[in-house]
Amino acid sequence: MLPFTCCKAQQTHSFGQFLNCGSDAGGHAMREIGFGLVFSLAMALTAFLVAAWPVPGQPIAAFFPNGTSQPEMARAVAEAGGSILQLDAAAAVAISVGDGRDYAASLYRAGAWLVIDGSLAQSCIRQARSLANG
């Protein structure tokens, strides 16, 4: 067990005792733990977004609200100026390719709620289906 020093009494305690060592010390420890959790989640989300960032000219996966039909997704891809590679109404995902650097932004304007790299999305969808099918 690691020793912790109480801020007020300057005594060494176990972690459980440390949390109860005056309101200042316990509050300080909880703030540090909370900050660590929030910081870790933010870093994980940032790493995911960097890995999933769409690359112009490569397949892009556009996730639409649940229940969006294939014709609605096709219309959104066409409005954004892309070419459809695959439509999946069950997952409300359209895999497409667009030439412009602002193609991902155009998909958001056309109604997509998430636009990520197509190859990453396809592997995630395959994995989810294999887990669902047992």
Characterization of this structure:
There is one protein chain. The chain is α+β, with helices and mostly antiparallel strands and 134 residues long. The chain folds into two domains: 4-52; 60-132. Helix content is 51%, strand content 19%. It contains five helices and six strands. The strands form two sheets. The protein has a four-stranded antiparallel sheet with strand order 4-5-3-6. A hairpin with a 4-residue loop joins strand 4 (82-88) and strand 5. The mean pLDDT is 79.
Explain briefly what this protein structure is.
The chain has 134 residues and is of the alpha+beta class. It has helices at residues 15-19, 22-52, 70-80, 103-109, 118-132; strands at 4-5, 12-13, 60-63, 82-88, 93-98, 114-117.
Top keywords for this entry?
single chain, 134 residues, alpha+beta, 2 domains, 4-stranded antiparallel sheet, two-stranded antiparallel sheet, 51% helix, globular
Structural class: alpha+beta
Overall helicity: 40-55%
Average pLDDT across residues?
A: 79
Give the CA-CA distance, first to last residue: 42 Å
What share of residues are in beta strands? 15-25%
Number of helices: 5
Shape: globular
How many domains comprise the coordinates? 2
DSSP E strands, number: 6
Low-confidence spans: none
Helix-strand topology string = EEHHEHEEHEH
Instruction: Report the major sheet.
Output: 4 strands, antiparallel
Gyration radius, in Å: 24 Å
Strand order of the biggest β-sheet: 4-5-3-6
